[in-house]
Amino acid sequence: MEYKYQKPTLFQALIPIIFLIVVLFINVRIFGDGALDGSNQILLILSGGVAAIVALRLGMKWNEIQTGIVKTISSAMASIIILLLIGSLAGTWLLSGIVPAMIYYGLQILNPTIFLVAACIVCSIVSVATGSSWTTAATVGIALIGIGKALGIHDGMIAGAVLSGAYFGDKMSPLSDTTNLAPAMAGTDLFTHIRYMAYTTIPSISIALIIFLVLGFMQGGSGDVTETEAILTAISSKFNINGWLFIVPAVVVFLIIKKMPAIPAITVGALLGGVFALIFQPEVVSSVADWTGSASEVAFVGVMKSLYGDIAIVTGNATVDDLLTAGGMAGMLKTVWLIVSAMIFGGVMESSGLLKRIAEAVISRIQSNGSLVAATAGTTIFFNGTASDQYLAIVVPGRMYADIYKEKGLAPENLSRTLEDSGTVTSCLFPWNTCGAYHSGVLGVATGAYLPYAFFNLISPIMTIAFAYLKIKIKKLDETQNAEIDLAA
What is the spatial distance between Cα 304 and Cα 311, in angstroms, rounded to a whole number? Predict the structure, then answer.
């Protein structure tokens, strides 16, 4: 590899990353879950400044550094637009009753004799619908912890089932920020990423469900499901729950299967959600609008608020009220801020050749595609345990390994899948990671108690490495794809 500027030593290349890890570790210790509110973003920018200082000492000019930053941010613009549209879709799908219907029917799967596997399925449904493992754990997860304890089931097992399902949805839902972030870092599109990720994710969740089923039958016992009934009653009292609502997600799935690009497909889904809200939930629309005027004005204001801002449906049930909230397009701005800040750091690291130098050190020890995937998985887990943030566990390795996968002739979806299989799902397994701290606090179960039972989270990185070593579904980068990526660069 040739360098445009002075070739950095490995230590020089690692200085910005070491700085980032140290300051983020301190930051999470001080701010806890609040680190995601903005302090992490500031530290990413400061770390980019450290990388810029190293780059300047290597002979790079500031204008060249700035150009590298802008180029890197530009590469993520499609994902930023998708994230904003997903915020709107989440809002209209809540307003129309689509998300509440998914939760309503999902909760009815519960059966005391198969509680663990049912809990995992319910959380999978809710997480796919909401795109958030955090929301799932804080709402349905809390209810399931209470129900499971009443059934006499170990709380670590319950939390493990909850998080297995929650992170399945967090990985597979197009509404999830990490599901959008991973393909942006790897250089592929959202729906290609989801389709390719299904090859490893479905076997992983299947194995987890089998284990939960066995454990469930070993538990025995029974108890009441009063809390679940209260949730169902609260939802049905506020929304018109019916099967027609599933037409909208079915249309979106159809468009995805027909390979419509993500931006128009999500836009159609968001707008259809608004139309169905007017048809099936006029009272909810009126409540959200909180507007005095003609019926058409009320309808316009209610749908518009769900598209752009915060909405909350009040049912009187605290658990349900926490679940039935959405932030609209504005709710995605914090994630957009994080992506832009991460791209500033990544842009300096990449344009200065610092990432290339680290990649050289890694690739010199890689002998096969299997070892490349294993190195990627190990790096993401390392960043989850040291940088204490799942976004960084996706962003930094994503930028670090993107060119290596291309040089090895591997399609970018191999990288995006590995980032999610090992980065997204293992974040909750570290008590000092923001995800681990959040889930243990919300569920009231220590990380060490649920870690042995978070089977999906433990199996996923093993599955992606096994697929690579066994050469199963490892897509090659053909010449046409190479040309397209070169033109896009």
Answer: 11
* 77-86, 219-228, 460-469: which is most confident: 460-469
How far is residue 217's CA from residue 211's CA, in Å, rounded to a whole number? Answer: 10
pLDDT at 483: 44
Q: State the Rg of the chain over Cα.
A: 23
Nearest Cα to Cα of residue 334 among 263, 383, 391, 397:
391
> What DSSP designation does 430 have?
S
Q: Residue 2: is its pLDDT beyond 50? A: yes
Q: Which amino acid is at 430?
A: F
Q: pTM above the 0.70 mark?
A: yes
Angle at which helices 282-289 and 295-308 pack, to 10 degrees? 80
Residue 1 located in a structural domain: no
Write out the residue range of the structural domain in which residue 472 sits.
Answer: 10-78+336-488
How far is it, in rounded angstroms, from Cα 457 to Cα 274? 35
Whether residues 364 and 425 fall in one domain: yes
Residue 347 and residue 273 in one domain: no
Report the C-alpha gap between 189 and 412 in whole angstroms. 9
Residue, of 226 and 408, whose pLDDT is higher: 408
Q: Of 71, 26, 77, 78, which Cα lies nearest the Cα of 47?
A: 26
Tokens describing residue 430? 């570290």
Residue % of the chain over a pLDDT of 70: 93
What distance in Å separates the CA atoms of residue 460 and residue 442, rounded to the nearest whole number? 24
Cα separation, 158 vs 292, whole angstroms: 46
Indicate whether 143 belongs to any domain: yes
